[in-house]
Design a protein that fits this description.
The chain contains 7 helices and 3 strands; from the N terminus they run βααββααααα. It is mainly alpha-helical and 182 residues long. It has a 3-stranded antiparallel sheet with strand order 1-3-2.
């Protein structure tokens, strides 16, 4: 006679959240096959050893979050690679005007140094493209987010440099020194 306290039936697995496919793929065949004495039909009873079921459940719960995070990271990186970066195209004088206004909003009282207008133009354009940062939503603070932020930063600055060639040097500087001054 089998001690039912250490076994789980197929119905018991379903109550624990297992699908038939999960049972086939993760547990394989039953540990014990028998005939139910209380069943109306004479269908076989399939029993799975509880310790084996629990071990698979523990492994799934420890691996699943990492697997989901990796899949999410891969999906975000794939989206970042193909998402077109649309830089607003402005006449040079209008870009300069907006950059000056942006500077006044962000850094009131800051001195403007040589090359400062170019820095503020790139800063303004980067700010105008902040909507692309939403592509990073759902990523944690782990390495995956850092990789995605780096990819997005490169794509945005390359797009700005392509749209405004006179800003290419400043874009390259920001890519070399992401934490540097404006």
């Amino acid at each position: 006679m089998t001690d039912r306290a250490v076994y789980v039936s197929l119905e018991g697995l379903r109550r624990r959240g297992w699908s038939d496919r999960m049972v086939r793929e993760l547990l394989g065949g039953p540990d014990v096959r028998g005939w139910g004495v209380r069943q109306v039909s004479r269908a076989p009873v399939l029993l799975y050893q509880l310790t084996r079921v629990e071990a698979v459940e523990r492994a799934r719960t420890s691996v699943a979050p990492r697997l989901m995070a990796r899949r999410r990271r891969q999906a975000v990186l794939a989206a970042l690679r193909v998402e077109p970066i649309r830089v607003p195209m402005l006449p040079r004088a209008e870009l300069e005007r907006r950059a000056v206004l942006y500077r006044r909003q962000v850094a009131a009282g800051a001195e403007q140094d040589a090359g400062g207008l170019v820095r503020w133009q790139v800063g303004y354009l980067r700010q105008a493209l902040r909507s692309y940062d939403a592509l990073l939503d759902g990523l944690g603070t782990a390495t995956g987010r850092a990789d995605a932020e780096r990819l997005l930063r490169h794509r945005v600055y390359r797009a700005i440099a392509q749209a405004y060639p006179w800003l290419a040097e400043e874009c390259a500087r920001r890519l070399r020194d992401p934490g540097g001054r404006r």
